[in-house]
Amino acid sequence: MNYFKRFLKFTRPYQWQGVLSIALNILYAFFTTLSYVVLMPTLNILFGETPEVTQKPTYDGFFASLNKEYLSDLLNYYVTYTNATHGPEKTLFYVVITVVIVFLLKNIFGYLGQLTMVFLKNNVLKDLRSILYNKILALPISYFSEQKKEILSIKLPEMLLSLTNRI
Asked: 4-44: per-residue pLDDT in tens?
């Protein structure tokens, strides 16, 4: 645990990237869930199995209404309403556009979340390499004559590579 705390101090200058990555990954998870909720009515429309919901579901607050049943019933209500007013072709067009937009947003937020984590990882590794390089430069010349040279040429890059793989 002590190593983890020591490692976290290197992420402090890049806290905004961490917060941004967490926010983007939360949005990615939300749109992933929403993509499955939106995809099912599309398949039901294609196969003619859409249950007709003629009464709009009641809204019980933000967190109470964030469940699959409420969102599915609300989507089925709008599908039924659009089907009755505009016809099945227009309804299918609207649902397909909605599915494409939701999947596009899901993939965009997933990509941006991973991209910000890569920037965070690369910046932390750059700082670690810079500290290591400065420590090696600060060593006296006698250190290099007394120690084996493979410690510097093999062990240190190997340690950085293992740290890179763990991050």
From this structure: 777 778 888 888 998 999 999 999 999 998 888 787 766 77
Residues 53, 77 contacting (CB under 8 angstroms): yes
Domain definitions of the chain by residue range = 14-166
Give the chain's radius of gyration (CA, Å): 27
Tokens of 111: 């990509």
Structure tokens at 131: 């500290």
Q: What pTM was computed for the model? A: 0.73
DSSP codes of every residue in the chain: -HHHHHHHGGGGGGHHHHHHHHHHHHHHHHHHHHHHHHHHHHHHHHTT-PPP--SPPPP--TTTT-SHHHHHHHHHHHHHHHHHHH-HHHHHHHHHHHHHHHHHHHHHHHHHHHHHHHHHHHHHHHHHHHHHHHHHHHS-HHHHHHS-HHIIIIIHHHHHHHHHHH-
75 pLDDT band, cuts 50/70/90, is confident
